[in-house]
Each structure stands twice: as structure tokens, then as C-alpha cells.
């Protein structure tokens, strides 16, 4: 067995820069040249083995979490999410924190959030300007932040929620991977650091109030779900609960807003798909809308790769990889494999109708014991927002040329913010899908 996978011979700082700024363009080129397993040297990770083959990626997802540490590999997220974040934990601690979070993501809990999500989506899209260009990314950021805030806290102290909303925007606009221009990064970090203590205070105040409530079982919000029905279940401490809230706010906001922005970008450029989606929205049928989201998450995965740090040497992709190295399944590369997804560069929601491609070939939410906890909520929320927009508006592209993807944090965002123009549909169509 060969010891080290092939890879570029560039100096570490150059590899680090290429990886941070343009890995969505650089890695496909490296794969064509070196094959499906590539060795990189980048900071702060060190030696990294990037995988693009779906079988090898599945093997990593199913490998023992005692050897493949995701929490250790996610260390960079510790400052924003907190030391008790499920993202930063491994092994027993990870399973314990994940168990604490599960009640907020059961199907019964998701059903409880539906109405709230639809109401917020309607309030937001009813304010959209018609007949003039705007950034779908900006609007989607606003709507998904509002959704996660309201779904998390329910309708509580409006005054506190308003302050939390304003300050959280400053705290959430951080760049843990450090990929933005340095001045913006510096300003964002200062803004985040200044606002963080007050955000912490507000979150602890909300937690204290909620612990005193005696009607948790009947409340549909996430925080109540995390605290309700404790039979045989260990409840999170205040510090754990605080970090759970920050983790969910961070993990559950930009990812889905990016997927929605790309959805509008693609639909505006594919008239047949737009017609099918609009018909689906008007009929209140979700299949096609969900297929749009799934295809967008395939074509432009919101998180382009995931990481695992090896606690001991392991066989990965046919190589003996030493302890301390990072293994990085590339979701982006795997989703562009023509063997699993013919014509991978084209937008075809139909792939996901009638059963769609094998589940193992679609991994936007990662896998194994670390698979995204919010995947069901993300798809539900995305489908509702698409339905509320497309049952009210005809969407068109503001610019003729498709937007190039740009890396922002771990997310591949539309280069110009997915600029669209919307035109209001006749009333009959718009009422068909009202909540
Ligand atoms: C389109 C939207 C989303 C995408 C593409 C996405 C993707 C991902 C990915 C790739 C991971 C890492 C999985 C791994 O390492 O194997 C992850 C983890 C996670 N996500 Fe999501 N996510 C989305 C939305 C959400 C939402 C809405 C929430 C919650 C409100 C959420 C909560 C989490 C949590 C808590 C984890 C950590 C799981 C663990 O470490 O055990 N995500 N997500």
C-alpha cells in the first residue's frame, strides 16, 4: 500500500490560500490530474487527505468515531459556538450532547414548527419589491434568521427578541475559516466580540425564564422541546443549553439561506423547471419543490466539505493515513461525479423525482453519527419558503449571465447575491397555497 496520496507540490502558504479562496475550482483540477484521493498541506489543519469517491466517503462516514474525530477537526468553530457545542465534541460527549438535541428535530417537533415557518415566510415575501432587481441572498438571509429565531424561542418577550435579533446579526457574521478579505474579517471579529457578551446575557435570561415555565409540553418552539418531557432523559445544563442555541443559530441559518438563494437563481434561468415549480406551489404539492432544493444542494452544496481528524493511523481510500492527519470528504466533488449524476453541471430537479438517485450518492448533510441534525427541518423550511414565494411571484433573473459561485466561510454563495426580479401573480394563483 502506497504511503502518501499524490497532490500538489506548491508551498503550504500557497496551498492554504488556494484552498481557502477557490477550492471549488482548484480541487476539481487536482482530481483530474491526481485521481480521487489527494494530499494537501494547508493551515491550520496540516496534512489533509481530500476524498471525492462516494464509496470511500461512505466508508469514512461509517468508520469508528473514536478514530475519525469530527469535533477535533471542527475546533475552529469553538469560539463562535462554545465549548459545549455538539460540533466540537467527540465520542461519548458528542453522543450525549446529540441526544439532548434530538427532541427538537423529531418529526412531531417539525410538524409543530410548520405554521410558524409559513407565517414568517409570508410576512417576509409580502414586503418584497416588485419589478426591480434585488439580492435573493440578502432576503433569504433575513427570512431564515427570522425563522430560526422565532422557531427557537417562540413568541416570547418581543423586546428581548428585537435586541437579540440586532446583536445576533453582528455575532453570526463571523468568518471562522478566515476566508474573507482581512479588513472585513477584522471588523467582523471586533463586532462579534463586542456584541457577544450581551447576546450571552440575553440567551441566559431566556433560558432562566423558560426553565420556570410550567407549560413547556404545549409550546411548539425548539427551546421548549429541548427542556420538555425529561422522563429518562438528561436535561442540558444552562451552559450546554446556551451553546446548543448558538450552535443551532449558526448551523441552521446561512446554510439554508444559501440553498434558497441558489434555488431562485437556478429557477430564474430554467423556465421549464420554474413552470413546474410554480405549478407545484399553486397546487400545494411539495414533491417538485423538494426536488429543486435537493438538486441545488447537489449542484451547489451549502457546505462543500466535512472533516475528520485521525486519532490513530487508518486505511483511507487505499492509503495508510497517519494519526493526526485530517480526512476531508469533499461533498462538492462527490456530487459532480458523472457516474452517479449524469451531466453533473446541469440543473435538473427531475433527478430527484420518483425515488431519485441512490441515497448514498447525495451527501449534502454529511453522514454517519455526525449527519446534520437539522436536515429534515432545513428541507421542510426550504420547501415552505419556495412555496410561499412561487405561489405569489413570477421570478426572473436580473442579469443574463449566471453568477459564479464564491466561497464564503464553508459555504458556496452566488457571486452577486443571486440577483432576481419578481412580478406578482394574479390573485387566484397566489391564494391557492396560502397557509
Ligand atoms: C441546507 C441546509 C443545511 C446543510 C446543507 C447542512 C449541512 C451540514 C453538514 C454537512 C454537517 C456536518 C456533517 C458531517 O460532519 O458529516 C452538518 C452538521 C450539523 N448541522 Fe446542518 N446543515 C443544514 C441545516 C441545518 C439546520 C437548519 C440545523 C439546525 C437548526 C443544522 C444543525 C446541524 C448540527 C447541530 C450539526 C452537527 C451534528 C453533529 O456534529 O453531530 N443544520 N450540517
UniProtKB/TrEMBL annotation:
Entry-linked InterPro entries:
Cyt_P450, Cyt_P450_CS, Cyt_P450_E_grp-I, Cyt_P450_sf, Cytochrome_P450_monoxygenase
Would the keyword Electron transport turn up in this protein's UniProt record? no
Q: Does the keyword Cell membrane apply?
A: no
List the PROSITE patterns hit by this protein, alphabetically. CYTOCHROME_P450
- Key words of the record: Heme, Iron, Metal-binding, Monooxygenase, Oxidoreductase
Gene3D superfamilies referenced in this protein's UniProt entry, alphabetically: Cytochrome P450 (1.10.630.10)
Cofactor(s) this protein cannot do without:
heme
What family is this?
Answer: Belongs to the cytochrome P450 family.
Q: What is this protein called?
A: Cytochrome P450
Q: Which organism is it from?
A: Amycolatopsis samaneae
